[in-house]
């Protein structure tokens, strides 16, 4: 949403306030979820393509995941980042994983839903995660290890799972 800083009015796709044309070089930065450029009159909006484009297990272009950033030390995301790196996957795979599990559970180790899905990866049923450790109900590391094993076996990598989730609404 764009708001006129002078009047507080919302931008209109058809009519812009006259004082907007008095300013040159305005820039709008948009998140890097797609590569595009839109130009109208003398204004342009460009969305950059991320330097490392995520691909699915077959090497096809997957849908972009937002850049996750640096996780807080000791957090579930930090544990996941360490495991992703140990598997030899890059930051793009970590970005896809963060986006996927943000949507699924918000990284809540106790997340559950009426279908029986549980934990960070929303395993269905949650008891499947017992194969990764007896503390599956409360340990983020156990849940992450199970979740990444599931993702690798079914989708090849987190970006493959993210692409599937983006197209179907589930993984």
Automatic annotation (TrEMBL):
InterPro entries found in the cross-reference section: Lysozyme-like_dom_sf (IPR023346), Transglycosylase_SLT_dom_1 (IPR008258)
Entry-linked Pfam families: SLT
Origin: domain of life: Bacteria
Domain Transglycosylase SLT stretches: 93-158
Stored Gene3D superfamilies: 1.10.530.10
Protein name per Swiss-Prot or TrEMBL: Lytic transglycosylase domain-containing protein
Organism annotation: Galbitalea soli
